[in-house]
Amino acid sequence: MDGKAAELSFSPVGVVTPDMTVASGALSKLSINGEIIDTTRGHHAMIGGRIDALFRVRDTHAVEVQSAIDGVARDMMERFEDPSVDPTRAVGTTGLFTDRGAVLNTADEVGLAGRISLNSAVDPSAGGDIWRLRAGLHARRRGRGAFTAENGGDWEEVEVEGEGEAEGTEESEEA
After folding, report:
1. pTM beyond 0.85
2. How many angstroms separate the CA atoms of 144 and 10, rounded?
């Protein structure tokens, strides 16, 4: 082993968050003896081996997977923010899923999968009411009902056959 050992370097960070990428400048590239190595290219000085694999995961694969997972979260939010899904929702109000309590901001999709949450209006542990899943997130009252064109878009109570007082209550007690 004659000669000087090569010096590998990069700038470490404590925790890598979804918005931190080489492209954003938040993560550094690997360098050998001060020469920057682009591990995203097909051929480079470090091709193959564990170091190459770890940098490829960090710089390419994890970024692609994060983007796909954030896309699924965005799709879920968009679907449940659609007024046809819940006619009690006004435009600009939150749907069943929120971005930390707020409506979807399509300009801030990176990391959305880690921020998506259930709307507190339907979450009993946050003081919400589960009945809003059926009645609508912004319904004023609970119960079975419908918003229909026939009633001008107003709430109309709907009787459901088989629901009401349980058998064996007042009438059977009198017997």
Report:
1. no
2. 61
